[in-house]
C-alpha cells in the first residue's frame, strides 16, 4: 500500500514498550533494512490492512527477524461492511530472509477491502513478533 505514495490504514496488536517511533507499524513499509515493527509480548499478535480500494490479492511477502517469527500465520479477509473470513494458513520458516508465501498463499482470486494476518505461534518464548517488511501484491479493482 504505502509504497505507491498512497496510504493504507494499518493496525497492529501491539508495539514493544509502546515505542511507536522506534518500533511502530510504519516501519514494515519503509523499505529500510534498519527498521522494523516489533510487537510487545503476548500470544496471537496481528496486523490488519484496510485497503483504500478493493484489491485482488495474489501474494504476501513478509520478512521476520530470525527467532521472532511465527510458525503459523492465519490470513483472513473481507469486503467492506462484511465480517472477516479465513482465507488460508501459512507456515513461514524461522530464518532472517524474505518469506515469500506465494506457494502456500493460494488465493489469487480473493477480492478484499480488508486483510488480517494473525501470527498465532511465535518462535519467541514471550510471543514477540518482529517484521522488517510486509508487502501485499495484487491488483486494484
Commentary on this structure:
It comes from Anhinga rufa (African darter). InterPro entries: Galactose-bd-like_sf (IPR008979). It contains one helix and eight strands; from the N terminus they run βαβββββββ. The chain has one helix at residues 20-23, and strands at 10-12, 37-38, 45-64, 73-78, 85-90, 98-100, 110-119, 130-140. Strands 1, 2, 3, 4, 5, 6, 7 and 8 form an eight-stranded antiparallel β-sheet that branches. Strand 4 and strand 5 (85-90) form a beta hairpin. Mean pLDDT is 84; it is low at 1-6 and 100-106.
Identify the CATH homologous superfamily: Galactose-binding domain-like
Largest sheet: 8 strands, antiparallel
- How many beta-strand elements? 8
The average pLDDT score comes to: 84
User: If helices are DSSP runs of H or I spanning 4 or more residues, what is the number of helices?
Assistant: 1
Number of domains: 1
Alpha-beta content class: mainly beta
Reconstruct the topology from this structure.
Layout: E1 10-12, H1 20-23, E2 37-38, E3 45-64, E4 73-78, E5 85-90, E6 98-100, E7 110-119, E8 130-140
Main location: nucleus
Family: Belongs to the NR2C2AP family.
GO cellular component, one term: nucleus
Give the structure's gist in a few sentences.
The chain is an all-beta fold. It has one helix at residues 20-23, and strands at 10-12, 37-38, 45-64, 73-78, 85-90, 98-100, 110-119, 130-140. The chain has a single domain (10-140), classed as Galactose-binding domain-like (Jelly Rolls, Sandwich), CATH 2.60.120.260.
Amino acid at each position: 500500500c504505502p509504497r505507491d505514495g498512497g496510504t493504507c490504514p494499518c493496525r497492529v496488536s501491539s508495539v514493544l514498550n509502546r515505542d511507536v517511533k522506534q518500533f511502530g507499524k510504519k516501519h514494515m513499509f519503509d523499505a529500510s533494512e534498519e527498521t522494523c515493527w516489533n510487537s510487545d509480548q503476548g500470544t496471537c499478535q496481528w496486523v490488519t490492512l484496510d485497503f483504500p480500494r478493493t484489491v485482488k490479492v495474489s501474494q504476501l511477502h513478509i520478512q521476520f527477524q530470525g527467532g521472532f517469527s511465527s510458525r503459523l500465520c492465519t490470513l483472513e479477509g473481507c469486503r467492506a461492511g462484511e465480517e472477516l473470513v479465513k482465507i488460508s494458513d501459512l507456515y513461514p520458516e524461522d530464518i532472517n530472509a524474505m518469506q515469500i508465501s506465494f506457494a502456500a498463499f493460494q488465493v489469487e482470486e480473493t477480492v478484499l477491502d480488508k486483510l488480517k494476518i494473525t501470527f498465532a505461534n511465535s518462535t519467541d518464548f514471550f510471543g514477540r513478533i518482529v517484521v522488517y517488511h510486509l508487502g501485499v501484491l495484487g491488483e486494484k479493482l
